[in-house]
Amino acid sequence: MDKFDRKPAWKTRYRNYLLAGVGMVLLLAGYVAMARFADTAFYIWGLSLYLAVMVLGGFGIGLFKAFKTYREWIQKLALQPIQGPGFTPLELAALEEFRRQSPQSTTALHAFLTSAEVTSRFNTGNGCITAIQSGRPHPLVGADSIIAWFEVAGVTAPVGCRFWTDDAQVVDLMEFFTGGQNTHGLDWAAVSFESTETGFTAPPVIRPIATAPDPAYAKVLESMEP
């Protein structure tokens, strides 16, 4: 048995495959016997029913496993509340640091924030992603090169904040990153923090693919509530 304890899982899978194989062989053998001793029409009908049951059964098992995997994934996200349209103190501090590092963007940033709101905010498990939308989408050239750093209570290393822009150079995401530290138990909307000059964690280089699970899966979240 190796350190990942794979053998029990392998034995379980092997047993399930063996039982499924034996069941299919027995059923198929029964229909073959029908072909020898029963009329052809009944045999064809029975074989068609057998194939339909096998296909639908396999599809159902696959769907169940996919749903189970999704439930396990979404449960680990530790979703954070949107907190209305306002920014949290940490997000406001990151925006202030953005203004300090890019004073030439002060006017555009102020105009952008006058009608900006948070559309989603969630804990990624090792950081936080905040999506922003503004009625005055002013482009902020070079925004994606600015990193704000903070000492956050509950995180041992400095936390960085990277600003992501869309194709029009408008800031639409703020990504707080920790370098892989576990933040599942951290409420990013209420953390205690202090600004710091720099950190040693490499900032993310790939834009997040999604900012939150699709709203269509709200029923999945509700089903996990105690």
Brief rundown of the structure:
With 226 residues, the chain is of the alpha+beta class. The protein has 5 helices and 6 strands; from the N terminus they run H-H-H-H-E-E-E-E-E-E-H.
Q: Can you put this structure into words, describing what you see?
A:
The protein is 42% helix and 18% strand. With 226 residues, it is an alpha+beta fold. Strands 1-2-5-4-3-6 form a 6-stranded antiparallel beta sheet, with helices on one face. Strand 3 (147-152) and strand 4 form a beta hairpin. Helix 1 packs antiparallel against helix 2. The longest helix has 36 residues, at 40-75. It is elongated and about 90 Å long. The protein starts with 6 loop residues before the first helix and ends with a helix.
Mind sketching the topology for me?
Layout (H helix, E strand, L loop, with lengths): L6 H31 L2 H36 L13 H13 L4 H8 L2 E8 L3 E8 L12 E6 L6 E7 L5 E7 L15 E4 L21 H6 L3
Antiparallel strand pairs: 1-2, 2-5, 3-4, 3-6, 4-5
How would a crystallographer describe the biggest sheet? 6 strands, antiparallel
Strand-and-helix sequence, N→C? HHHHEEEEEEH
Share of helix, binned: 40-55%
The side-by-side strand order for the widest beta sheet comes to 1-2-5-4-3-6
Mean pLDDT: 78
Our estimate of the beta-strand percent is 15-25%
The end-to-end distance, rounded to whole angstroms, is: 36 Å
What is the gyration radius calculated from CA atoms?
A: 27 Å
Number of helical runs? 5
Shape by Cα distribution? elongated
What is the β-strand count? 6
Low-confidence stretches: 1-8
